[in-house]
């Protein structure tokens, strides 16, 4: 897939920045979850190159955003996850005056951290009918429920929460902030993405203004000119069934595939360098047939995954009817392929692949983590099957 001159320039400049400014901090920076202060510092640094929630001019078109995600994830997937899950910060101005006043200082100084609260303990990948409820009470909503495996949960100021809107008998998203509504958090440990903090959220009758309902906030922002419908994936259904939530989920799923492409790129570069430098039996191991077979498989997985992910980004941007199906296809296939690719790369390293002194064990852990968040591979297969046959294999 040919990139424009501008997209190649973006790719090259971000790669240079990541190699020079971020990579030297690794692997130490990824050993433990980022503190709130450290996460803010990194996001402020990334804003210097127009990347992340604090950037004044972000790369908003899906294809360029995909390229950005690939390049950041090539060096540090945890940082990309932390930035991506803080996306609610970019919508802060469309929500209620109560929330905006409470966080005016954090907003002005780029010290606001957000998260998406979707997955529930009893629901897992089933997000169609959440147990978390939003009950209308006068000009407020009362949010009650529990979320789990939420990236940024332990450090978040604001949470965009998927809940069941009792008044309209459908799911929606609601902004709950820590200062005026309050919510409890508990950190969780995990296999990969070690640098990205993850946790549970508990909402015990948290009261929020009705203006913090996403669908209402978007419509009001469009009507008074604060939001341009052509520039917001939250305001248009595109190819995801005419539903802003479906469009957002499609973008998030394909975003996970883009992170996996970045991990595969890193594993490929490391494996190729090691295969040409490492010598056994008086010749580079890359000269052995079985090592060359693994390099073949690694490069094939990388190139195929990159093409599928970028093609899906273009379909989301075009509002193509197949965008929802393609986003599940890319999320499922590319994330699984990243496990295969990093496994092959680790095998090329032999015993050194298991050592924390080399990067392959981190690439493998991060790749293995990719197959579960934002919908497991099994769920993605069912979504694709439904889109292809119009027959639902799940209820």
UniProtKB/TrEMBL annotation:
Keywords: FAD, Flavoprotein, Oxidoreductase
Top-level taxonomy: Archaea, Methanobacteriati, Methanobacteriota, Stenosarchaea group, Halobacteria
Cofactor(s) this protein requires: FAD
Pfam families reported for this sequence: Acyl-CoA_dh_1 (PF00441), Acyl-CoA_dh_M (PF02770), Acyl-CoA_dh_N (PF02771)
Record has Oxidoreductase as a keyword: yes
GO MF annotations, alphabetized: acyl-CoA dehydrogenase activity; flavin adenine dinucleotide binding
Acyl-CoA dehydrogenase/oxidase C-terminal domain segment(s): 245-385
Domain Acyl-CoA dehydrogenase/oxidase N-terminal intervals: 4-91
Name the UniProt record assigns to this protein: Acyl-CoA dehydrogenase
Domain Acyl-CoA oxidase/dehydrogenase middle: residue ranges: 115-206
Record-stated family: Belongs to the acyl-CoA dehydrogenase family.
